[in-house]
Structures are given as C-alpha cells and as structure tokens.
Amino acid sequence: MRIRCPFCGERDANEFAYLGDAEFKRPDPNAPDAAARFFEAVYLRDNPAGPHNELWYHTSGCRSWLRLTRDTLTHEILAVQFARGELKTGSVTAASREPG
Amino acid sequence: MRYSIFSLLRQTLSSHRGWTPAWRDAAPKQGYDVVIVGGGGHGLATAYYLAKVHGITNVAVLEKSWIGSGNAGRNTTIIRSNYLLAGNNPFYEWSMKLWEGLEQDLNYNAMVSQRGVLNLYHSDAQRDAYARRGNAMLMHGVDAELLDAEGVRRMLPFIDFENGRFPVLGGLLQRRGGTARHDAVVWGYARAASDLGVDIIQNCEVTGFLREGERIVGVETSRGTIRADKVGVAVAGSTSRVARMAGLRLPIESHVLQAFVSEAIKPFIDCVVTVGAGHFYISQSDKGGLVFGGDIDGYNSYAQRGNLPTIEHVCEGGMALMPSIGRVRMLRSWGGVMDMTMDGSPIIDRTPLDGLYLNAGWCYGGFKATPASGWCFAHLLARDAPYPVARGYRLDRFASGRLIDENGQGAQPNLH
Fold it and tell me: How far A40 CA sits from the closest chain B CA (Å)?
C-alpha cells in the first residue's frame, strides 16, 4: 500500500502511522447526555466494508495529519487530503515535491 | 460412523471404500429453535454444545461459504490459557480443559498437542510482569513456570540469547498450552453436531434479519427466509456488517492479521515460542513447516490480505530471535479479518434486540477460545443467562466502564 501524501508525494505506507476513523467528533461535555455521547464517540464505530474515511500521520515524512478515503475491501486509496483541509504552503505544491 | 482402531481395520480390509461423509450437508428448513450465523469453529461448537449439553437439537448453522473458510482456517493454531485478568483467565482455562478432553468428546482427532507455550522476557521489568502473570495464573489453578535463561537454554539452545538490544533472560512457560489442528477442530465439531441433528447449511449468506417490533424472529438468506426463536451471530471479522443489518453499531473495528508458514524442515522447534521484545510467535507444524505470525497490520481492513511492511517486520522478529532460520524459505502468507474490540476482549452477550445474541470481538485470539466460546454461547442461547466464566464479556461494559483491558492499550484496536 502506497499513500500519496499531498506534501511529500507517493510514499510507502510504512512511513505513516494509523489513527483510525476520521469521523470522530468530540461531543459537547456540557450536554445533558454527554456520557452517552462520549461513549458513542469513543467506542462505537461504523467499521464499513468499503470506502472508509480515516486519519493517518506521516511520521517519517512531513509529519502532517492526513485524511484518507480508503476502500477496506481492496486497500485502494480513493482520496487523500490534509486533515485540516488545504494546507497553505505558498509555492511548495504537491506536484513540485514529487520524488524524481 | 464411530471412528476407532476397529473401524479403521474394517475399512482397511475393504480397501477404504466404506467411509461415509463426516457430516450432513443440509438444506434449510423453514424454521428452527436456534439459528447460528457463521459456520466457523465458534458457531459449530455452539451448535454442538446446544445439542449435547442443553438438548436443543433443532438448530441450524448458516455459513455463507464453506465451513471453516474464515478465521478458523487462517490462524496459527495456538491454544493456551496464560491470561492475567480475572475476567479472562477462568474463561480461557475452561477452554483449555475442554481442549484436553475434546478428541474423546468429539470422537475426532483434532491433533491437540500440549507441547508448551513459552513467552520469552528480555528485561528485569518484563520478568516482573511475567512473574505477576504467572502468579495470577497459579492463583486461578492454571499451570505456570517462570524459567531463567538456563531453563530456556535447555529447551531452545539455538536461539540468540545475547541479542544486544533484547537479550533473552528467561520465559514464562505454560506446559499445558500447545497447538491443535484448526481444520480438524471445525470438522470434528461439525461431525459431532450433525450427528446430534444439527443442520449445517453452507453457501447460505444471511442478507437481513426478520423483525417483529424489537424482536428478531429469523433471518433472510440467499437460500430463503428462515425463522428462528433465537438467532446467534458468530461471524468474527464480519460482525459489524451483520450487526448493521439489525441496526446495531458495535465497539468493533475489523483489522487484518497476517500469518506465515515456511517450507517444511526437520523437527526443530518442539513448543510454541513468543518473543516479548516485539510481537513474534512461532511453532512447527507436524508437517514440518514453521508457522509464525506477529502484529496486525494496524489499519481497518476486510481484505483478508495484508501488506509487505508487516511481513518484513514479523520476519525481522524471527531473525532476531533465531538467526538460524534465515535461509528457510517462506512458503505462504495469508491474512484473516479480526474483529478487534476496543479493550481487546471478546463479547458473549445478548443484544438490545430480543432474540438476537452476539458472540464477537475475539480479536486475534479466537482459535484457542473455540471450545469455551461455543460452550458459553450455547449456555447463553439456551438459558438467557451467561455461563459464569464468561460473565465479564458483556456488550455494555464499554458504556459502564467495566473493561477487560488485558493489554492495557485503551480504546485503540490498532494497538492491541
């Protein structure tokens, strides 16, 4: 499995660390049902067989958090973006960082 | 047909033409008392104990492919009960006791071999942790021995004791642990269950659940509708997919675990060895191949195959422990889909829906649990109450905080 990092270009998946489901939203701790919402957010997963949005960290590269859409049935990576959305990198673009 | 030396002699005299199929390949009926979804080791064991212990024989086991085609046929066949926590240890010891009498009980050669399971330690701190685990085992009535380096050297003189980073200082040994023949376990349970009247239905994929209000009253399958008073789900890596058909969201992620076998060599390793420094375990099959494995790949997957970095990582662990295997060629590698729970321990429980029962979350430790998992799930299905040793494996423990966090990794399935 190779991941096309938007900053570093295509790299071996071994350079990345996996966090998991990207749909985690921290619940409002002041909500009246906060305990139930935290239980759902921390423990329950959709765990789809098919496209899965997930967070990877480019540990041995640019150290960016990435948001991937990957098919869990085939390991095909359908989309990659920075987890924070488009990174403001000025003149450094993904294309100019492609390995030769 | 009962298997014995006499039936073998009788068949020998008639040129082995009289053997009959070990179990009945049944067609689905319209309804059953209990339907088990999943024809792996756990599902078949459940059906067997339902029939044998609880007298419930109007049971069907539904398998979408052929029996034992999932994780039951993809594991590294290790059996052991060297657990630390009180929620786990009595369960796995019950499983070990069932393993010890399994072949006589099933009248089937499952090749249960109590060759010993040895966990190596590499530091003083790790020795203390293993001593604690061994003491916990002894207090639960399980056998455990703490070996020093000399004790390990007598068993495994060929391993690298002087590794600069991870010297081998000793090990925790459970002599009653060992291996079993995974396929034979599946076939043995299938045969014994079938003999008691259980229908084993292959190529029958569950596509939905029949609901009446908040009650599950059967399943829709690729071979028609089957009604049931109770439905038990034991589908390992596919648990989330099947549960979603019933509208349930579970504390489970599916991950891929790879396993490996080398070409066959002469007898070399006569026990199961695990390395405490990384995650590597190895044994030698009766055919001669070295059977080994390591960590899960670490990302969600239903692919039943993994990636090369994990293969390299596992083989590095093997080379660090026993450099002598370096020129042995790897024959095959394969992957299985693990239903990883958030605390690393399984679930045997009712679900919020009446009539639907769940046996899941075995992570990568399901094979050794097969007999006790079937025993406890059968008890739950028959009596609507947990069998005592499985009382901790509740579905609601994640909400209540009563986790069984054997590895101390928290709610991170990719770290277990």
Answer: 8
Chain A residues with beta carbon closer than 8 angstroms to that of B252: 45, 47
The residue among B244, B232, B222 whose CA lies nearest residue B33 is: B232
- What ipTM does this complex have? 0.90
Phi-psi region of B389 (alpha: psi -120 to 50; beta: other; left: phi over 0): alpha
Alpha carbon B236 to its chain centroid, in Å, reads 10
* Structure-block tokens of residue B311: 């293969």
Position B118 pLDDT exceeds 70: yes
Q: What's the whole-model pTM score?
A: 0.94
Q: How many CA atoms lie within 13 A of B95 on its CB side?
A: 31
Model confidence pLDDT, tens digit, residues B212-246: 999 999 999 999 999 999 999 999 999 999 999 99
Sign of CA dihedral A98, A70, B310, B129: positive
| Side chain identity, residue B124 | D
Residue B139: other Cβ atoms inside 10 A: 11
Which of B9, B18, B74 minimizes the C-alpha distance to B41?
B74
Mutate to test the interface with B, among A47, A69, A72, A74 (most CBs of B within 10 A): A47
Give per-residue pLDDT as tens, A35-82: 999 999 999 999 999 999 999 999 999 999 999 999 999 999 999 999
Q: By the 8 A CB rule, do A64 and A58 touch? A: yes
